[in-house]
Each structure stands twice: as structure tokens, then as C-alpha cells.
Amino acid sequence: MFTSPFVLTLSLLLSLPLLLFFFFPTIYPHKDLPLSRREELDDLALFRRVSATRSPSHALPAAASSRSFPAKFARLGARNSRPKIAFLFLTNSDLSFSPLWEKFFSGHSRFYNIYIHADPSSKFAPPDGVFRNRLIPSKKTERASPTLIAAARRLLADAILDDPANFYFALVSQHCVPLHSFRYMYNALFGNSISAFNAYINPGKYKSYIEILSEEPNLYERYTARGEHVMLPEVPFEQFRVGSQFFMLAKRHASLVIEDRKLWRKFRLPCLNKECCYPEEHYFPTLLSMSDPKGCSHYTLTRVNWTGSFDGHPHLYQPEEISPELVHELRQSESNYSYFFARKFSPECLEPLMKIADNVIFKD
Fold first, then answer.
1. What is the C-alpha to C-alpha distance for residues 77 and 110, in angstroms, rounded to an integer?
2. Which end of the chain is more exposed for a tag (fewer CB within 10 A), N or C?
3. In the chain, what is the straight-line distance between the N-terminal and C-terminal CA atoms, in Å?
4. Contact 162/113 with Cβ under 8 angstroms?
5. Rounded to whole angstroms, what are the CA distances from 304 to 204, 236, 273, 279, 319?
6. pTM score
7. In this predicted model, what pLDDT tens digit does every residue of 108-139 receive, in sequence order?
8. How far apart are CA 274 and CA 32, in angstroms?
9. Spacing of C-alpha 257 from chain mean position
10. Which among 245, 237, 234, 195 has a CA at the least distance from the CA of 220?
11. In Å, how far are 1, 177, 178, 199, 339 from 336, measured between CA atoms?
């Protein structure tokens, strides 16, 4: 029979993580954490709903051969649905290029889903057409902060819960535009209509397309942005990685992101050195590099022009720069695939892009 002091001690030990969660901002020497406790609890409830849909056999430590879909999907029969691509729009302004995306998605409704995380503190006019009623519950976001990581995780979670057929998850912004037709992109990822069903049979053979870099300038400054030893022991400097914020994750890796708690506790911390702190460019490459490096391509499918960048922003294309030649140039890649998307375009680029959409962008 347990004694009362033993029971009391055990109860205190079990409640310690919860106590730390609520009082951490007080005992941690930095300023207030970027995400409120309410936001954290909301997200945690959402992520637990995702975990509840997955059987234990679907958990992924690093095994590339793990099955991706919940047991209930097996009863539906893979032949009833081809794998889909979930497009995750992360925005803090209107989707200026929605007419171009409408053309991109036209005729392919069985092969994609759309989810939008729009900063509720910004002016956002929900677009019509394929974007209607596609907003998910959203929180405030801020550049160069873990709020962008949290927003991407919410998008992944909502997409996983919404449709078991979602196999790839493409994160894009309001400044992104497609460089190819939907058919070109889908066939490049899955092959023809028959081979596409292999995604259900052997999901581990499909890589995630995310940039993972280990030898970038200012890498150590980025690593120590929260303090010299703050990332230890979970993230040694030798395992810290950086990369593009925009990715296309396979479902097993999207689920891994949702299930992560250990690295998130580090990357959610505020930065002391703001000039070198871009958590949205650090968290995903580090997590996936540490968990399943062979299951990732280590390159992104979204083209960005950093020539003449200013204050951490890439080149912003203007209407006079839009041409068929630019589209062909932006597609060129040193990887196994042509680039599928590109950024960053000013809203005024919509008109010239629409003029060349049918005969250039979506011709393939």
C-alpha cells in the first residue's frame, strides 16, 4: 500500500510539466514568449486530434517505409481516390494571384485540396471560386518569429484531418505563383494514373521536398540567436540546419511535424539577436534532417531570387519583368525536378501573368 507522502510526491512530479508550461515565461529570462498559452493549448488540442486518427503502427521515428494513412482509410479502398496534394496558403494579405491559381486548379478538383491560414489582424478579403470556405482557424503571425512555424503546423494538421487522401502538403504564400500546369506537377510527383496508386502501397519511396542546408553564412549566429547554449541538449550545433520556408512534405513527415514536442519547445523561444533569427527557416529543416534525412530531397521546389535582396527579403518581381523568358528561366533547376513555383511577385504582376498563362505557364 502506497503511503500518503509517496502519493503526494508522485502527483507533484507528474504535474511538473504542466506547471512549467504555465509558469515558464516567468522563470525564463527572456521577454514574453511569442505565442500565448491559450494559443499553445489550442494548437495542442488540434494536434492531439490528428494523433487520435493514427494507429501506433503509423508513428514515424525515422523509418521511410512507414505507412502514412490511418486505418479507416484502408477500408475506403485506395482505388476510390488517387493521392491528393494539399495546398497550404500562408498569408497576411489578400490572395492577389487567385485568378492565376484558379486556372492552375481548373479541371483537377479530384486531385487537390486548399487550406488558407490568414492573419486575423490583417485585412483579408476571402477569395471566391476554389478558395471559398477554405480558411482554417488562424492566429496572428509575424515575420522572423515562431508564429509562422505554428501557422504552418496548423495548416498541416487541418489538412491531415480534413482528407485522408492528402499525400503531399505544399506550403505557399500569397506572393507565390505556379510555373507549370497542375497536370505537369502531379505527373512529375506521382507518375501516370496507374503508378500514382503506389503512393498508398509504398509511401516511403516518396521524398519530401524541403531545402536542408548545413554550410550557410552566419550559421552559428543563427544557432545562438536565442542564447549561446539555449538550444542544447536537444539541438547540437552540428545538427542545426537552415533552408527555405516553403516546402512540399510527404504525409509521414507532415505527421512527424505535428507530433513533435521536443524541438518545438526550443524553436518557440524568443530571440535575443533579431538580425539572425528566422525560426521558420530553421525549425523544419532541422527537425526533418535529424529525423529522416534520407527521406528528404534537401532542395525546395519553390524558386526564389535572392539577387539584390534587402532586409532579408528576396527580389520582388515587377510587371515589366514578366515574360515567357522569365518563366522558362525560373523553371530551371539543378535538382531532379524543374521548379514548380516561384516567388516573390508584386500584386501588379497578375495582369501580365494572366496574359501568358495559357500559352506559356500552363502549356505543358
1. 16
2. N
3. 74
4. yes
5. 28, 29, 25, 18, 17
6. 0.86
7. 999 999 999 999 999 899 899 999 999 999 99
8. 15
9. 9
10. 237
11. 64, 20, 18, 19, 10
